[in-house]
Amino acid sequence: MTETRTQQSAFHVAEPEGTYPPTEEMLDTPVDPGLKKAREDRLRAAWKQPTGLRYWSAVNNSEVGAWYSLTAFAFMLAAGVLALLMRVQLAVPENDFLSAERFNQFFTMHGSAMMFLFAVPMFEAISILLLPAFLGARDMPFPRLSAYGFWSFLVGGIFVLSSVLFGIAPNSGWFMYPPLATEAEGPGSDIWLLGLSFIEVASIAAAVELIVGVVKCRPPGMRINLMPLYAWYVLVVGAMILFAFPPLIAGDFLFEMQRSFDWPFFDPERGGDPMLWQHLFWIFGHPEVYIVFLPSIAIAAMVIPTAARRPIVGYSWIVLSAVGTGFLSFGLWVHHMFTTGLPSLSLGFFSAASEAVVIPTGVQLFAFVATLMVGRVKMIAPMLWIAGAVAVFTAGGLTGVMLAIAPFNWQVHDTYFIVAHLHYTLFGGMIFPIVAGVYYFYPFITKKKMSEKLCRLSFWLTFTGFNICFLPMHLTGLIGMPRRVFTYSGDMGWNWLNLISTVGAFILASGILVFAWDLIRPKSRQPLTERNPWNGGTLEWAHDIPDPGWGVRAVPYVTSRYPLWDQPKFIERLDEGRFYLADAEEGLRETLVTSAVDAEPQHVARVTGPAWCTILAAAFTGGAFIFPTFHMYPPAIVCGVLAIASIIYWLWTSTAQVPKTPVKDVGLNLRLPTYVSGAKAPGWWGVFITMLGDATAFASLVFGIFFYWTARPDFPPQGTAHANLALVALAAVLFSASWAATRIARGINRQGKVTAARVLLGLAPLLAIAGAAALIFALRLPGLAPTEHVYPAMMWAMVVWVCAHVGAGVIMQGYCLAGSIFGKLTPRYDADLWNTTLFWHFLIITCLVTCALVGIVPRAMS
Amino acid sequence: MRPVRRALRDRTDSTGASIAQNSEPLRDDASRPSYLAQIPRRGVNVKPFRVSLLTILATGGCAGQQSVLDPAGRDAEVLATLFWWMLGGAVVLWILMNGILFYVSRAKEREFSRRTAELFIIGGGIVFPTVVLAVLLSYALSEMPRQRDLGSGLTVRVVGESWWWRVEYLPDGWDTPIVSANELRLPTGSRSEIKLAANGVIHSLWIPALGGKTDMIPGRETRMSLEPETPGDYRGQCTEFCGESHALMAFGAVVMEPEAFADWLDKQAQEAAPPTGTESIRGREVFAAEGCGGCHTVRGTPADGLVGPDLTHLADRRTLAAGVLPMTEAAMIDWLRDPEAIKPGVHMPAYGHLDDADLSALATYLLGLT
Amino acid sequence: MTRIEDKPDDPPPYRHRSIWHMIAAPVVWSLHFAGVYAWTALSCARFGGPDEARLGIALATAAALALIVVIGWRAWKQWDFLDDYDDVHDAPTTEHRREFLGHAGWLLSIISAIGVLFVAAPAFYIGSCL
């Protein structure tokens, strides 16, 4: 394939050249001390952190990851305070400590914040912080994207949480079921929808980056069978986020159209159906549980081999477990809807899948125990939390087996039994392993150690408090107490159980506080930790103390799952800089890009440095989401435009820059291209993965149409007008022409026909805009009014979706045209055009499917 | 129109002949809530071992009336038994898993071989759960259609409102429903079909003593069926979050022998008894003057509002305000004076502007609607 | 000058170095799951009834299992366990990478087959759309 492309191109595209893999002899060649010092100085200069106020413009993973985790932890504490206040209210019957309205706001925010502001972001934060070190990479592939994600998260999180202080928080539950949530007065529901959509977008951004990180930024030699298990989990969880979050974004889109413009998607009076939201929400909501659980179990997979002082037993089994759980978790969503009156047959599928997922989930626990079996176990402090996690999680898993039995679920659904179950799974599957991970990785992150004494104290407080709080809740639920009640009558037999739970909640909180203190207490007078305090075998423990900021001294050549245990002279070679990219001659931040399966070196990626434009982009994106909450649309539009401008500035100035030299010597007799386009470039993968998520959101809208068709007899209503077929066909032709122009422009630009390519790139946006206009008029001419019935509303929703995407596609075409004119995009350096073409491949499918669904399918349905 | 009694008796004869013999000691008054003690008991009937279980958990009151572990219907009985089995299995498995974990990390004297460890993963991680789960799933799947079976006896339609229940009995042969509210009575000896709908937002109907819950969804009609076995007073509650006073949306669930039920339903089908005492008659005037009939129906009077609960046989019910207050005069006056204080967000306006005499008369009239 | 693209030790077929092939079995599980769910919803709500639903599930299940058996067999060959009884695959070689992908694909086939059978079980026990 490479050769054919070379023949077609008028310009030679650089390929890797030299020796690979390196020989032992090359790796043993000593480096002159003076040269070593000079290289280290240059590297240090390239990776220097900005100081003073400019510190906040930092984008590298160690800073952003730390901010991200601390912010998520702070949000968790805030949501925990809400829980304590609710426990006070429920401590005694008929209490009036909190009003019904306030209680409802609190439990809504407790759930929403724990899920959206803590559990998922915490995974992303920890992964951003640790993943490059696990992979011996200098940084994440798109540092500014991490920073953008973090600042978006911060703005959105503060916005959503602070609504509690003003008493205008959402109050319809974290699941926001319509019609309750669509009819709710005040901005609460909008705050939830827009604030959290904003954070969902940030989550997807992080997922894209993490997937690309795992696939393309592994060190040379780290084939897919040698990847640390954490990377496997990141890959699986990233893919899950990509397929789980978009349905919720699609749902949010429909929901907000109803809230803002009265399009009746969930209004049964006008053909809508509240059940569509439940489906979209739980298609997100159940994988979400595993999105939270798997990364935490991944931490256990890093800690346990160290404690057992043995390589993990059953590596393939754990991979099976992670991948299998990832798949099966998408077949469980209806077990949150067992009581909605769906046919028993349908419930049966979900009941069965919910039982089947127990198998892969269990396999990884058995693999951990098996590893401890063969090892000489040293009970290092984090292992205490891991053991606690297993104890708590197995209890939650076993009640999960019960809950998957649909008839039993009909009894205990929405009772305190569920509250107990979900907290057992989330504490056992998330909190305990995360705390274990913090104790384990703290020496790597801060080069200091946390206190072993406080570790044990906080563990026992948390563990006993947790069980005192949540174990009785199983019984509370079985003897009839529903969830989400702000009060209860004193003669139901629930009094003592509730009082015990409240006491337990405060003991639990004290445990978390001890941990928080241990985490943040000043440690400046404490000595630095030794380099590998737990004697781990994975790459992160090769870190430098104190932290020089460069991530890793040189990108190593890896031949084992546990290089520090198995590869002799590894540390020595690393410290000498006898691996790849040991220098920064041009003063640029660089990391190595390797092939997806066998990790063969392909490319030197220039990663971006400190910037303010990411913060601006995040702030303006925030404005674009937050202003509509209060129905302030003009400032929202201004913010949206400024956000796009900031992002374009950021892309233009720092991505796909034309390099000074096409090839660079990375050491060990290997020369790698400094610029690649197409499927070898991380940016192309970023676009590809993003568009998979985007396609999932679009598929959710398509699902909506078929859902209405099966669920509602009046979809489409008798005798309704349909879209103008001729205009729909015209739109399809125009979109196809625009797509073809873009694709051809890429080909002929490569051949050096720059002017022709520019003409096509100038024409393509006009065709696309004309197509969008034709599609809009196809609905306007027959007079389809979206507020009248869900059928025209759904048609308009599809068209709005397409138009928004065409807008993005047009901007990208314009960006490429400008790039060609101003020399950023040449026949040889054409990554932007490849990415734009890839975007358009997805877009043309979206457009053509929409044309079919708007023009043809409804006529066939009615 | 044929009498309800006949229709129900016919069915009982064919399906549940032995139910009537199932009489056991009555629960003593001390274990009932104070307001229930004032009501003549009919068929309160709780098996002794369940009382002992509950005394461990709680003291008196409604305890046990809303419990999965104190079943009084066929479905709930099956599920309670299933629960105890699953709990037993879960406890054993939990102890095994954590015992092994403790042993291998703390107590073992030598390392196991890799082969043993791998067999442990295969056996414990794949073979054992596949077998156990297949058995459990098969049982659950075969039980599911039984619990969703079509009712063969009475049909009742229940509509979830904010925050109360509209109840319509549709016995065979009747073309207009017998309307009631906030209390669901079901006969033993047959499976009753319950049709569910909702007005406004989603609710969920749950009577743990009888069986599982089903949601009530605006724009849809869902259904469930229940087969009560033990006559008695039970309690149900809304379990889908439905807004501000979700916590205060409960109802009485009364299971009766088919005979007694038929008598009761016959009486429900009748119009309201006209007031007799002077106080009561004055209460009716207050009721009319305040426009209560705009929202409430009292059959046999001009009051025919459909917004709020039907009040024709209000005083016959165990509770007031959807399972929140006892059916006493004091509670009634409190409710009329300021419903918002009792049930936040309630749609019923306050009648605090009435003087005590008027309120008392109104309460007397309403409590006379038996 | 060595072009590192050349890989003499990595003979075809492509699936021996493909993660996509590794996850083929669970993809079949997903398609089966989505298919039976959609088919049941349509049969119960739009046309036909439980019998059509159950027949469709039976056919889909047979097809899915057949596919998974094929995928599992190829993965088993790729794992090549009986050759060297290796199930660790921790060496930095093409052989170990190939065997690892085969091993994981084989395990995923087993779990997918169990998943397909579990998901089909309701059609065996439940004969109505209630």
From TrEMBL, chain A:
Residues 1-30 are annotated as: Disordered. It comes from the Bacteria. Pfam families: COX1 (PF00115). It is a multi-pass membrane protein. The chain crosses the membrane at residues 64-86, 106-135, 147-171, 191-215, 227-249, 289-308, 315-335, 347-372, 384-410, 422-442, 454-475, 495-517, 609-627, 633-652, 684-709, 721-740, 760-781, 793-817, 838-857. Pathway: Energy metabolism; oxidative phosphorylation. It is an enzyme of class 7 (translocase). Its main location: membrane. The keyword Transferase does not apply. Keywords: Cell membrane, Copper, Electron transport, Heme, Iron, Membrane, Metal-binding, Respiratory chain, Translocase, Transmembrane, Transmembrane helix, Transport. Residues 41-548 form the Cytochrome oxidase subunit I profile domain. It catalyses: 4 Fe(II)-[cytochrome c] + O2 + 8 H(+)(in) = 4 Fe(III)-[cytochrome c] + 2 H2O + 4 H(+)(out). Its EC number is 7.1.1.9. Residues 1-10 have a biased composition (Polar residues). It is found in: Cell membrane. PANTHER family: CYTOCHROME BO(3) UBIQUINOL OXIDASE SUBUNIT 1, CYTOCHROME C OXIDASE SUBUNIT 1. Belongs to the heme-copper respiratory oxidase family. This is cytochrome-c oxidase. It comes from Maritimibacter dapengensis. The lineage of its organism: Bacteria, Pseudomonadati, Pseudomonadota, Alphaproteobacteria, Rhodobacterales. The gene is ctaD.
From TrEMBL, chain C:
The chain crosses the membrane at residues 20-42, 54-76, 106-126. Keywords: Membrane, Transmembrane, Transmembrane helix. It comes from the Bacteria. This is Transmembrane protein. It comes from Maritimibacter dapengensis.
